[in-house]
Records
---
Amino acid sequence: MQNLDSKIIRPTLLLDKAKCIANIETMQAKAKRSNTRLRPHFKTHQSAEIGEWFKERGVEAIAVSSMQMAEYFANNGWKDITVAIAVNVREIDLINELASKIQLNLVVESQETIAFLQSELKHAVDVFIKVDTGYQRSGMPAEATGSIRLLINLMDESDKLNCKGFLAHTGHNYQASDQKEIYKNHSKTLLDLNELKDVFRKEIPGLEVSLGDTPACSISDEFYGIDEIRPGNFVFYDIMQYVLGSCNEDQIAVVMACPVIARNIDRNELVIHGGGVHFSKEYLEADDEGTKLFGSIVRITKNGWSEIIGGGYLASLSQEHGIIRCSDELFDEFVIGDLIGILPVHSCMTANLMGRFMTTEGEWIETMNSKQ
Amino acid sequence: MQNLDSKIIRPTLLLDKAKCIANIETMQAKAKRSNTRLRPHFKTHQSAEIGEWFKERGVEAIAVSSMQMAEYFANNGWKDITVAIAVNVREIDLINELASKIQLNLVVESQETIAFLQSELKHAVDVFIKVDTGYQRSGMPAEATGSIRLLINLMDESDKLNCKGFLAHTGHNYQASDQKEIYKNHSKTLLDLNELKDVFRKEIPGLEVSLGDTPACSISDEFYGIDEIRPGNFVFYDIMQYVLGSCNEDQIAVVMACPVIARNIDRNELVIHGGGVHFSKEYLEADDEGTKLFGSIVRITKNGWSEIIGGGYLASLSQEHGIIRCSDELFDEFVIGDLIGILPVHSCMTANLMGRFMTTEGEWIETMNSKQ
């Protein structure tokens, strides 16, 4: 086994393939136990190669967060893709191109979009109605069955839009203050989707309901009536999910390895090369005084990383610099040129920015964001 | 003139070339008036093509924020590049490669790094000592003349490290609460750099001092004793700089154009395709209650954009979605499929994420972050 330390030159997102695959298998096993389909959301890794790890384990259907991401995965052999964001009508050419090649599933929430698609689509697509079960980002309110029926009626008259069912995202689970709140939000989503199913079952043959969010899919074992789950972040997890209780520390499958470039002994601060262009600027509030935490510290080992080290945290980020605030002991442990590991707050944002990952075996994994 | 609206399919960073060039010329004129050199920081645009706009106006020396950015601009004809971040010793191979080709200027702040470079450099480089004038991110405290002298003595003994002078970044200006605070911070940096110049003038022939930050370089006309200024963000400006008073609204040279994908009439919210992977998640606090503002709203016109529209702002971002909170009037103005313009909070982060820009003439400008 080669020493990882010798392979890392600059800020690098390390990926522990074994942990990642264990996360995939755990979620796949839970879906099977719960008689629901795992349609993993690929927005977190955005990588054809990591997609193969799912495919090898029987996954055939995926969700993505943009039409361009759908195009990338369609070009990499995926035949059943849900674009889990309301249709951007300006992308009609790409929609038509993809709909001619694969089973493309779209998401709508307005009469205007349905009318546009009916007019402009060249191929039939399956369509989910986005419903809002409390996140208040987008979607028809789940209780607005009258308005929802109008959308369904419009699609009934259409020869191109096949209404497939309802899709919800319990996104407010990411802001939950404790697990109880996640259970509560999740229960509301389950209730809402099952009620919609009851109301529209007769009108929509083969009606399906789809829900997705890593916190509930990780924490709950209850998915009655749910046809598919669409978690994404679980493939890597991160500090936000660890704090929410979605994962154990050792399920976090990615860590940023950053070189120490300066040390400030007066403030017990290590300066790393690693900033907002690597991590993103997402943070957690570490206490009631609003102390910002941009990541937790680990040691990079020969072939992976240690448990979280107490006594320090990533306290601030500018474009390329990060500041690690340290105890005396932690400060003394690191010299200039050393690597320090940082578990990211939000792996989706960090992975998107980094564009490629190095496995703990030292191999590069490319994504749709790999640079020229 | 073609209509911009017909060219934009998905979230697009629009660049007004005329405004951008005016920003360059204004800063260049100020540098000339102040008898200082403009060494623009290219971390904001990261684009060889935009670099040419500077070159055509007589700029020959630049700053960058990473060694890879130095490599990119060296490959695009730049011969005098300061990498304005403490040396990452792991990049020694790239440092040696670049030092063999161009005038490479490095930044150090520790004896360890100097000793490493003396041992490993294959070519002579100019070196600036990073000094901290109050930002408390990195650098030797400006008043620590004893410790600074130790670094200079080490370089005196070196045949490869030519100590060129001192480099400071008044980064705390980005957090200033008003212009008075920016003037105060800037004055402290001027005082510190001039004092260092007085102390070490005899020991370092041709000693130079370099300072950089867009707020002070935009607001102040006072640069006595300063050999060069290194502002970066001024090339585009953004809402953060507008709020700080660094620029007028019509100097902001970039805007995100995002399609409206949904409308929520109950909450007067427009949902756009445009999220954290486009804007970054930087925000400003819009009031004392901590209301987050992720961008200000403009109308996209045939060949540019309007003034800021009252009655709405970009209120939240997830990975691909943005939520615009609206007055009744603003809400009624936009339908699904329309473009809405958003002046970004921090153009450096947004430009870095977007990777390419469309000019208001409809031409694409590539950067070192353009994707495959």
---
Amino acid sequence: MENNTIQTLINEKKYFEIRKYLNDLNTIEVSELLNQFESSELIMIFRLLSKNRAADVFSYLDTEHQEMIINTMTDVETKNIFDELYFDDIVDIIEEMPSNVVKKILKNTDAKDRHTINQLLKYPDNSAGSIMTTEYMDLKKDMTVSQAISKIRSTVENMENVYTCYVIDEVRKLEGVISLKELITSENDTPIQNLMNKNIINVHANDDQENVAEIIKKYNLIVLPVTDDENRLLGIITVDDIMDVVEQEATEDFHKMAGISPVEESYLKTSAFTMARQRISWLIVLMISATFTGRIIKSYEDVLQSVVILSSFIPMLMDTGGNAGAQSSTIVVRALALGEVNPKDAFKILKKEFSISLIVAVVLAAINYLRLIILTKTPLNVALTVSVTLIFVVMISKIIGAFLPVVAKTFKMDPAIMAGPLITTILDALTLTIYFRFATMFLSNMIK
Amino acid sequence: MENNTIQTLINEKKYFEIRKYLNDLNTIEVSELLNQFESSELIMIFRLLSKNRAADVFSYLDTEHQEMIINTMTDVETKNIFDELYFDDIVDIIEEMPSNVVKKILKNTDAKDRHTINQLLKYPDNSAGSIMTTEYMDLKKDMTVSQAISKIRSTVENMENVYTCYVIDEVRKLEGVISLKELITSENDTPIQNLMNKNIINVHANDDQENVAEIIKKYNLIVLPVTDDENRLLGIITVDDIMDVVEQEATEDFHKMAGISPVEESYLKTSAFTMARQRISWLIVLMISATFTGRIIKSYEDVLQSVVILSSFIPMLMDTGGNAGAQSSTIVVRALALGEVNPKDAFKILKKEFSISLIVAVVLAAINYLRLIILTKTPLNVALTVSVTLIFVVMISKIIGAFLPVVAKTFKMDPAIMAGPLITTILDALTLTIYFRFATMFLSNMIK
């Protein structure tokens, strides 16, 4: 719709109208619109944006569209845009660009900014340092409220967040926090050291972003300061960046639990080949380990040939065991990720899963037994074998399913890889072993 | 640690020291500490908190601890606490409490507040109205900047967020938004209608919270206004509440994908019986549908008895098909949840999954074929049957796995229930059918 309107305007070369049309949209809407255009039209529309709007819109464009724009812009235009951007956005852009584009960007930034950018690029992936921005509002403790407010007024333009101000000493050590809300409601000549909160919650630049997300959630923060080993203020992380982290971490867990290596790009942008590679390694591992299950069946060939009906229950037992285990492992993986439980609770978890699995197992086995003897002509002793197997399979599956993620966490491994396909494969082998053991025990008279 | 310190102080009745100790902790830390105490000690420590701190701490306590406190408090004390709380927190508390406690709370609130609370309680679960708060900063458009700032100064105490102010007309219709940042950097006598942004992003009180989360993420907002059918301002939703929504929605998807009905409480707090109930319904459905798979095996009994080795490949084929399908369904469910794809992209998704599955299937089948003829003494034609089956199984699993969630979304159903156990059960039946069809085709000379 929007696309059509503007396409018509472009065809009719009504630049003034286009500009007017763009003015009525907000930044995000303009960038979504631009993302639908290619090369020459993209550049044409982009050039119609006002100078300080251009930078804002630019930061929300797709990587490929950003690259097209930088490639066709003059040095002066490039500088104009990058001067307006926040450092965390510049770093995000640089990390995605090919080296010739990175060179062009760095060539058109001041020496001081280039230094900051290089510093930020050095922080490890997914660390607090890598997602922080350096545009924060800093004050000195001997300032009065009115001095503080006038400093805020004069520098507000370049700041990502001015509502939380940080009080630092001469060597930039963090001494306190004060909100703009407190400043505007206090007397003009009060020194801010009397007002500031010294009980500061902060993170270290090398802390993992998952950690940062936990703290922001726990304390309901909008912004969190990042410091170095000497408690010097390096930057701030705002809650909107953490929102992305929370979703990213959840996505990673979803993918790991389905046996997929982490995918950075979005679905439609990742090539089929890359996606195939991300999925195939686990499938190969699991395919090969599933052959052990096959070996178990093979080693009970004589039992199966004597009581052929036994093989028809294999899928039901394997599926039910797998599903029961997947339920427990999913619940525990998620509870661990949300911090609802931790490895110290191992015993409580086992006790709880034992009770749950007992209830579930007995109900399932009873339903199964009744169904087999009422609805099908399954011999009584076979129905009994299958149902008793079901009890053990469900209980063991649930307990192992809940336990493995806790073990993983204890050894600082990712609990998520202990769920899903891996657990199903382990449980398949266990299920069959239990099944055939009971079969040889209970049905010895039927086995030749 | 903290627990011990304070326990010693309690035992020694050093109330002054306890109070000093509590003063050094922040609100969240105090509530975490209190959550570890029971009844009488809990009340004793709670009473040592200053009046306005008590309310803050109270809002972060566990439901059971909140209940204990309300039950022992006098009416005046109850009123003191609930006067200080934000409406969204009061509503959350009321929703969790038994009716006698709710009565006590409502008895001790002003008629006007009680009206607001009752209004908020009426919004459907998970709607924007149910998570919004009514403490926002509203201004009139004919105010000047200095009038606006002095209104903010005088009412700041009761507001959840003063950094975004809403401009409303006489009948409370939303006319514009202005940030405190803009106010403090503008001239004192400018009318705010010249400064306010009229391009407002808002949600309706009946909108789903998932929708709210999407808008907040898309536009990087800290706070979002909620309006009614006539565009009258009803409340605001702040980003920290949305963070919980995002996690809650992800947890729901995790659980649904593992065949678990939604769990409201955290893992350790839910009883084993409730948890068993949440897990058993899907297990019963899946157990019964898995017997269809058993029927398929049974109907090919003659094939299996002629070529017994065929049964040993069943687990591998079923697992690989299930895993391949789970990968695709997980990827697509998550991409749908994040808004990376939508049902309109169905054709693109199918095309992509076709390419991915072709690569994956051929590689897996080749590895499997080589492994069978080199490492085991599997007859060539059996190895071929298994490997060709594998190609078809992996391709069909991936395509169905990706397609079902998209179909669900098209029909406004939840894509997440189309992943996990359900898809595995469907694919099991398909896998076996394909397998036995190929077996009868390729191995006709071996079948008696």
